[in-house]
Amino acid sequence: MIPHMLRVGLTGNIASGKTRAAEAFADLGARVIDADRVAHGLLERGGAAHGRIVETFGKGILDPEGGINRKRLGNIVFFNEEKRRLLNRITHPLVDREIERRIKEAEREMPDGILVVDAALMVETGGYRRFHFLVVVACDPELQLRRLMQRDSLTAAEAKARMESQMPVAEKLRLAHYTIDTSGTLGETRKQVSVVYRDLLRQARRLKSGRGDPRPPAGTA
User: Contact, 28 vs 193, CB < 8 A?
Assistant: First the structure.
């Protein structure tokens, strides 16, 4: 059987509300793969990336149980571009392989469904090109800063360093087929996700019918 699963990339910068959007897609029936959770698994003690990261960045990043303390690692890589790139070279190939394995598994289990892959660096790595559509989540920058400080217990300087380490969201928005603004309430975000999901269902039907690759509706690309 040729899979008809519609592949959708979901991205946005740190603390932009991407996780809430992903949860809303899942509630509507989409199969969601969270790249950040995949990466967390690889960093755990015994995970595929754990040993090499400790060897590269030193035992000072470990917690008392031998696991990687992500805040300590973050304080190294988000203030040093060379070290951040080094970390990405270690983790990205492993994350990509695991995501591709999960995509194939999802296509076997629900070939006519909608698959959403939630990944922060999808545009930076070029991974967005393997999806039929790209959804970009964004919010007001001041709100993004406050969210990040509160979520990760960071100082303003630490939070700004993490935000500034990423590609400007405007560059991602130019590639988007759909955009979701999470500056408002959770209910407002979920309404936007519902509108996008309804159109994705239409695109999925088009794909299943064999009328060629789906195309973004006018005005969304």
Answer: yes
173: Cβ–Cβ under 8 A, 6 or more apart, which residues?
A: 136, 138, 179
Among candidates 217, 215, 194, 169, which has minimal Cα distance to 6?
A: 215
Residue 73 sits at the vertex; the CA angle it makes with 70 and 74, to the nearest 5 degrees, is: 80
Cα–Cα dist 53/59, whole Å: 9
In this structure, the number of other CB atoms found within 10 A of the CB of residue 163 comes to 19
pLDDT tens digits along 159-204: 999 899 899 999 999 999 999 999 999 999 999 999 999 999 999 9
Q: Are strands 133-138 and 178-181 parallel, antiparallel or unpaired?
A: parallel
d(CA 56, CA 183): 38
- Helices 50-57 and 81-109: crossing angle in degrees, nearest 10, is 170
SS3 58: coil
pTM for the model stands at 0.87
**Cα 69 from Cα 204, distance rounded (Å):** 41
Average pLDDT score, the chain: 91
Q: CA-CA distances (angstroms) from residue 157 to 14, 20, 160, 164, 175?
A: 15, 25, 5, 10, 29
The reported pLDDT for the residue numbered 221 is: 38
Rounded to the nearest 5°, which phi and psi values hold at 9? -95, 135
* Phi, psi for 114 (deg, rounded to 5): -115, 125
